[in-house]
């Protein structure tokens, strides 16, 4: 008997429908503590809004700089990170650590 049911690949971007969704997703990535996780989450969020071309349009950064900044070896400057987050409709904030 052949199982006709098929699964579809999971894409985080499919579940990031609003700025609130993206904010929660990025906060969870930050909590991981691994910078690579945050960079992957930022790439997934870019996919959710239409890809790097749309992120470039919204952020004012070039596609080339976004690909470089959000690569596995990327190291975004604060100004770039703020522009990227602004393009997602979220902002960077600081809060005290939990005890």
Q: Tags for this entry?
A:
99 residues; 434 Repressor (Amino-terminal Domain)
Notes on the structure:
With 99 residues, the chain is mostly helical. It has a domain at 33-91: lambda repressor-like DNA-binding domains (434 Repressor (Amino-terminal Domain), Orthogonal Bundle). The protein contains five helices and no strands. It starts with 18 loop residues before the first helix and ends in a 12-residue tail after the last helix.
Summarize the structure.
This protein has 99 residues and is mainly α. It is built from five helices and no strands. It is globular, with a radius of gyration of 15 Å.
Helix and strand element order: HHHHH
* Termini gap: 56 Å
Morphology? globular
Largest sheet: none
Structural class of the helix and strand makeup?
A: mainly alpha
| Discrete helix count | 5
Strand content: under 5%
Gross CATH architecture of the domain at 33-91: Orthogonal Bundle
Q: Strand tally, please? A: 0
pLDDT average, as an integer?
93
Helicity range of the residues?
Answer: 40-55%
CATH topology of the domain at 33-91: 434 Repressor (Amino-terminal Domain)
Q: Which CATH class of the domain at 33-91 is shown?
A: Mainly Alpha
Question: Over all CA atoms, what is the radius of gyration?
Answer: 15 Å
Low-confidence stretches: none
- CATH superfamily of the domain at 33-91, by name, is lambda repressor-like DNA-binding domains
